[in-house]
């Protein structure tokens, strides 16, 4: 059963899952201390009760927050804020990012030009 739980955990692309022993809680996990501290700060600002724990998984510390399922809607928004604050841009190199944007706009313009000239 332990292997199945590990496979299920790896397939979960979100950072939240149901609590393994208490159905009334949802667990949010963070891989960096900065994200965890910011998430904790947001929870404290909103006066949301939580339980905190650290777990060592494959030699790396994972920061866990257990939240009551009654608060999941509000906590999901806070989770997105915590993840988004420390997320790196999809295309980190600014000149390349603008090149991709301009390439997309050029392709769209050529497509529209071809559509109207064909008629």
Describe the structure.
This protein is elongated. With 119 residues, the chain is α+β, with helices and mostly antiparallel strands. It folds into 2 domains: 2-87, Alpha-Beta Plaits (2-Layer Sandwich), CATH 3.30.70; 93-119. The protein has 4 helices and 4 strands. The protein has a 4-stranded antiparallel beta sheet. Helix 2 (33-45) packs across helix 3 (72-85). The relative contact order is 0.12. The N and C termini lie far apart (64 Å).
* Structural shape: elongated
Which range does the strand content fall in? 15-25%
Overall domain count: 2
Strand neighbour order, sheet with most strands: 1-2-4-3
Q: Note the gap between the termini.
A: 64 Å
CATH topology category name of the largest domain: Alpha-Beta Plaits
Extended strand count: 4
What is the N-to-C order of secondary-structure elements (H for helix, E for strand)? HEEHEEHH
- Individual helix count: 4
Largest sheet: 4 strands, antiparallel
CATH architecture of the largest domain: 2-Layer Sandwich
Mean pLDDT: 88
Output the structural class: alpha+beta
- The top level CATH class name of the largest domain: Alpha Beta
Ranges where pLDDT stays below 50 over 5 or more residues in a row are none
Topology summary:
Layout: H1 2-11, E1 16-18, E2 25-30, H2 33-45, E3 50-57, E4 60-68, H3 72-85, H4 94-118
Antiparallel strand pairs: 1-2, 2-4, 3-4
